[in-house]
Amino acid sequence: MTKQVAVVLAGCGVFDGSEIHETTLTLLRLDQLGIAYRCFAPDIEQHHVVNHLTQDVQEGETRNVLQESARLARGDIQPLGELNADDFGAVIVPGGFGVAKNLSDFASEGDGMQVMDALKQALTPFWEDAKPIGLMCISPVLVPRLLGDSIAVTVGHDPGVAGAISAMGGLHRSCAVDDIVVDLEHRVVTTPAYMLATRISEAATGIFKLVERVGEMMDQKPLSP
């Protein structure tokens, strides 16, 4: 395994962390392609804790994003502050509401959102070095605040989220659940995943395409300016 990808997580569980199926499918496809990976997550308290059986917020309960993300990584994970882009050829961010609650405040602020500084500091070097960046599900909403304006992304067909992306200066492209949107100029790859998927197999098709495209782009030179 000569290629290596950083995977940024936001907790464990669709309603307050990283989406479990999306994360597992990402890691599975990377491994199947012979691409090594390392997982990272911020060492911070979650925005809140959600009972995934009832979807109720558990008042008074707190959990740590890094510790929860370690469940998905089988304990093999590092704090986000230790992510050095020089060690990786690309970065992928799975979805889940943790992206909108822990990595940013999109869930509460919409197009007035801010992205956590630690995420900007970790991912900006990938952007500056034109290394591929893959985002799925709700994660593409980060792009305008994280990377800049006029970058084509998708969350599928959700008009509210698509409108927020546009309001922040992004370019939203409609996309089927089993497909991807590739911004070749900016080297950003996105897929709807569980923004549209109703079955794990549907999510898998788009996620596998995203991982495969990111892997291919690691071997390709960026487009000339």
From TrEMBL:
<protein>
    <submittedName>
        <fullName>Isoprenoid biosynthesis glyoxalase ElbB</fullName>
        <ecNumber>4.2.1.-</ecNumber>
    </submittedName>
</protein>
<keyword id="KW-0456">Lyase</keyword>
